[in-house]
Design a protein that fits this description.
It is a single chain. With 344 residues, the protein is an alpha/beta fold. The chain has two domains: 4-147 and 313-343, no CATH class; 150-308, Rossmann fold, CATH 3.40.50. 35% of the residues lie in helices and 11% in strands. It contains 13 helices and nine strands. The strands form two sheets. Strands 6-5-7-8-9 form a five-stranded parallel sheet, sandwiched between helices. The radius of gyration is 21 Å and the shape is globular. The termini are far apart. InterPro entries: Exostosin (IPR004263), Exostosin_GT47 (IPR040911). Belongs to the glycosyltransferase 47 family. GO terms for molecular function: glycosyltransferase activity. This is Exostosin-like protein.
């Protein structure tokens, strides 16, 4: 009722929030899994909160997330002694949607609700990460990449190799409101996407499209630079799609904390532009193209970089789930060091 039943909808395991499914599957098949709970360092709680889709717009509805999570924790705390042993501090959840551990898609409501009290001691694998204090990441967490289907990536690359010709200089396809203040009274993307549209919609260097297109990955592999502006939250699946298909990501999301920052050389494979400077994008990217673009592309085309951001059915050395396990092991080592220091 918390996972398998949701998989009846095929989108559950393929949309941008599907890391919750992918990590569960990979761990279930992994040799790090034990069936003896007394030997376990961590307990993975496989609750799919992003698998309920709206019939109106097709987007995940996660307003039920807290209720479902509370039900799951109530179940495991009654039927298994391990949650109560540590008050859940060695239990791991996935929050693959906009505001992570607050389990809501809208920031104001996420902040108002805060992190559920019963999860305060746990570890959350979340796509939401920022470098400034934010109540929705005020919990032990690991920033993970959003889900991008590796099979789709390989299919595109089989037809258009990563080193192939790139006839699009700057690419973006996605939601860009002409009148940014929507029905919620908020400004989507802090108006960043609207400013890009107004400034560059007639600029021949920029390939900007607002309508959806299922084959847009074939456009990314043709592009030199791929814009990755914030949406409601700072993170975006475009970041992983761009890296996987060899397009230099242009990150426009102030204060974002990127996935696996200790191992992915983000400063060497991407360009960061401040939200206030979107009006200077053309000049900034022209300067990069004239100076160090080839160096950035060489770093970007390192297969290890792409591999680190993709989830697979089985844990593979250096892939996204592998780095999740590394991050957890580092937390375990840190915890053990603190315990030893306290004992001494």
């Amino acid at each position: 009722m918390y996972n398998t039943d949701w998989l009846k909808n095929a989108r559950c395991s393929s949309h941008l929030f599907a890391s919750e499914v992918a990590i569960h599957k990979a761990l279930s098949n992994s040799n790090v899994r034990t069936f003896d709970p007394s030997l376990a360092n961590f307990f993975f709680v496989p609750v799919y909160v992003s698998c309920n889709f709206s019939t109106i717009n097709g987007f995940p509805i996660i307003t039920h997330a807290r209720e479902v999570l509370s039900s799951a924790v109530d179940l495991i705390s009654k039927e298994h002694p391990f949650w109560n042993r540590t008050n859940g501090s060695d239990h791991v959840f996935v929050a693959s949607h906009d505001y992570g551990a607050c389990f809501h898609a809208m920031e104001d409501r996420a902040v108002a609700g805060g992190i559920p009290k019963f999860m305060k001691n746990s570890i959350v694998l979340q796509t939401f990460g920022v470098k400034y204090w934010h109540p929705c990441q005020d919990v032990e967490n690991v920033v993970i990449p959003p889900y991008v289907c590796p099979d789709k990536v390989e299919k595109i690359l089989s037809n258009s190799p990563i080193h192939g010709p790139r006839d699009i200089f700057v690419f973006f396809r996605g939601k860009m409101e002409v009148h940014p203040k929507n029905v919620t009274g908020q400004f989507y993307s802090k108006s960043v996407r609207t400013k890009i549209l107004r400034k560059y919609k007639r600029d021949r260097r920029f390939y900007i499209k607002r309508n959806r297109f299922s084959g847009y990955l074939s456009e990314i592999v043709r592009s030199v630079f791929c814009l990755c502006p914030l949406g409601w939250a700072p993170w975006s699946p475009r970041l992983v799609e761009s890296v996987a298909l060899g397009c230099v990501p242009v990150i426009i999301a102030d204060g974002i904390r990127l996935p696996f920052e200790s191992v992915v050389p983000w400063s060497n494979i991407s360009i960061t532009v401040a939200e206030r400077d979107v009006g200077k994008l053309g000049r900034i990217l022209d300067d990069v193209a004239a100076t160090n673009l080839s160096s950035i592309q060489r770093n970007l085309w390192d297969l290890k970089v792409k591999w680190a951001l993709l989830f697979h059915d089985d844990v593979e050395y250096g892939d996204a789930t592998w780095h999740v396990l590394v991050s957890l092991s580092e937390k375990l080592n840190t915890s053990n060091q603190k315990s030893r220091s306290f004992s001494e």
